[in-house]
Amino acid sequence: xxxxxxxxxxxxxxxxxxxxxxxxxxxxxxxxxxxxxxxxxxxxxxxxxxxxxxxxxxxxxxxxxxxxxxxxxxxxxxxxxxxxxxxxxxxxxxxxxxxxxxxxxxxxxxxxxxxxxxxxxxxxxxxxxxxxxxxxxxxxxxxxxxxxxxxxxxxxxxxxxxxxxxxxxxxxxxxxxxxxxxxxxxxxxxxxxxxxxxxxxxxxxxxxxxxxxxxxxxxxxxxxxxxxxxxxxxxxxxxxxxxxxxxxxxxxxxxxxxxxxxxxxxxxxxxxxxxxxxx
Length: 279
Prior knowledge:
Structural class: alpha+beta
CATH architecture: 4-Layer Sandwich
Number of helices: 7
Number of strands: 12
Number of domains: 1
C-alpha cells in the first residue's frame, strides 16, 4: 500500500510540471528562425487575398504584417491560401479612409493582440495612424510583431507617428524579441527613421548589405515615373541580438499593389546572454 501511494504521489508531481516551461527551456539551446514579410495591399483593389497568398507561398513565411488592408475576413482569406490560420485585424483605418486597416497573419497562435493609436497633431500629417501588435510563440519562444502604417515625418524630433511609436509604445514592450514591419512612408536616413534606430531598432537592410538608395517599393504600378524610394521596412530590436540571414524586396512581373512586398529571414539566438550585439 505504501509503495502504491509513493507511486501515485510521484505521478502527481510529474503531472504538475508546466509543459510551456519545458518547451521554452529547450528552445534556448538553439537559434529561432523566423520568416516575416510586410505588404501594403492598397485596400485590396489590385488583387484578391487568395492571389496575394499564392504569391507569398514559396517564401514559407511564419508571419506577415499587412497594411491598407480591408476589414472583415480579407486577411483570413489570404491566410487560408497559405495555410496560416491565425490573424488579427485592427479597428483604426488610416486617415479614416475606407479599408486601410493594419493586420497580422501568423502560422502560430496569437496569444496577445492590441492596437495603438499613433495620431499626432502636426503640419502635413494625416490622422489617425496606428500600429497593431501581436505576440506569438515560435519553437516555444515568445516574439512580438508590430505592423504599422504611418505618415512621412522628416523634420521633427519631438512629434509625429514615428516619435510616438519610439517613445510611447515600444518602451513598454516586455517581450525580448521584437519585430516592427510595415509602410513607414519614410526612407532610411530620414529623421523619423534615425529616431527608430536610436531607440534600439535595426533595419534588415543593414544586415543584408542592400543599397536601397538604388531601389524603390513605391510606386510599383508606375515604375516609369519618379518614385518614393524604399519606404516599406522590417526592423528587429537590437536587444534580441538577432541577425538577418536572407530577404529583400519582392519583385513581381505583375504588381499586386502600388507597393512592393518586402521580406526577411531573421534568426534570434536562443540564449540572449551568450551572443554579442551586432555592430
